[in-house]
Amino acid sequence: MKLAVLLSGRGSNFAAIHEAIADRRLDAQIATVISNRADAAGLARAKDCGYDAHAIPHRDYPTRAAHEEEVLRVLALHEPDYIVLAGYMRLLSPTFVAAYPNRILNIHPSLLPSFPGVDAQAQALRHGVKISGCTVHLVDENLDAGPILVQRAVPVVDGDTVESLSARILDQEHEAYVEALQKLKSKT
Ligand code: GAR
Fold first, then answer.
1. Domain region containing 9
2. Fewer Cβ atoms within 10 Å of its own Cβ: the N or the C terminal residue of the chain?
3. Looking at ligand 1, which residue's alpha carbon is closest to its atom 8?
4. What is the pLDDT of residues 25-62, one digit of tens each?
């Protein structure tokens, strides 16, 4: 199972997937890692791990479509089975999604369909929910939507801050992403 990882930042979900492959908990390979930010820590980490890794900064392109076209061009060179969005903070156009129907995965730090979009953990705290978590789902043309593959719940505790809740959710994200990929692998 050939994966292409798209990320924008820290890259801890990418690292969790990399470690699961290295430990043979996940039978897959990461064919390429692409970031829309040249300074993403996750991109540096991918290079350190020896992966084919590209910065394709969206700011270098006149339009969203032009940027996506370049990302799609690089992806196509690697013929991935699945595109793994790991903290990729760009909304994908319907054209992009149509290029890989039911083959793009995303992870989101809430129990979707609650709290899509940015600052999901802050949204959860604002609403006062007592349980939050993370969701791994297949991507459709809507924001943070599409068939759910795995969810993990965590409690929201008194005194939680965005930081403390995010950290509790992130621990579960790392396991949930590997579990979702294991599920897809078992179907191939
Ligand atoms: C994760 O919490 C992920 O769920 C979130 O960004 C973070 C990336 O962390 N994604 C979204 O909010 C997407 N809507 P990472 O760079 O350490 O994997």
1. 2-187
2. C
3. 87
4. 999 999 999 999 999 999 999 999 999 999 999 999 99
Q: Which of 108, 127, 137, 174 is catalytic?
A: 108
| pLDDT tens digits along 64-88 | 999 999 999 999 999 999 999 999 9
Strand partners, 138: 105
| CATH number reported for the structural domain that contains residue 8 in this entry | 3.40.50.170
Chain-centre distance for alpha carbon 178 = 11
CB–CB of 7/43 below 8 Å? yes
Structurally, the chain folds into a number of domains equal to 1
For residue 173, how far is its CA from the centre of ligand 1 (angstroms)? 9
- Across the chain, where does the E strand assignment appear? 2-7, 29-35, 53-55, 82-85, 104-108, 131-138, 148-155
Q: What distances in angstroms separate CA 128 from CA 84, 111, 132, 135, one per listed residue? A: 31, 14, 10, 19
**Is residue 67 annotated as part of the catalytic site, yes or no?**
no
How many Cβ atoms from other residues are within 10 Å of residue 140's Cβ? 16
66 CA to centre of ligand 1 in angstroms: 24
Vertex 49 angle, CA 43 and 50, to 5°: 95
